[in-house]
Task: structure prediction
Amino acid sequence: MKSTMTLQVDTDLLLQLISHLKIRGGAQDVSEAVNSAIVLWLREQSQLAKNCDPASVRGYQWKSLFLPEGTEIRSWSYGEHNYARVVGDEIIHKGKAVTPNQLAQSFARSMRNAWMDLSVRRPGDKQFKMAHRLRLELARQVTQPPVTAGGAEASLADTTVGALLSALQAQVRASQPAPSRPEPPAAPAAPRHVTPGEGWDLPERRKYRYRLEDVAFD
Result:
């Protein structure tokens, strides 16, 4: 079920959306694009702490990953963990504001990738998770199209119908006898050799004929 309502959108923003849909290709339905944006926004809001006003949320924006205030950041170096915390809009480590890259490099004797080195536990998270995993999950959520109720029902119906058809086809194949292989045709017999040999056409010269048993057992 879909509801129709009128919303005011800035002209420049609408033109940017239409241009983006044109570049992206595929279905260029503005309503579907707006619906996807709302679903993504609601998904992000559900990850915020309860009773938290989004307008007053503070935290550190690490490129595509937002770390709300109270987030703990951990690094492992030389057998021990080192911690930092998001306070306000900054990452604080030992009383000083640092960037994720500075935090990762401060414990190492070689260059480190902060995304691969730091683990994060945001307010509401039960355990620490590597920063690069959080970034991949966020990118996957952005690119994954929302599944509407109608789309889910249609997908389920298609799956059910396909399963029924496959079962019926398998049952029909099982009930039919296996086709018998035709026997290969017999090889044709070799033609008889009828050409007379040397002396075959001469007249008979024998005058008497004897049986073998009369001669051998006399």
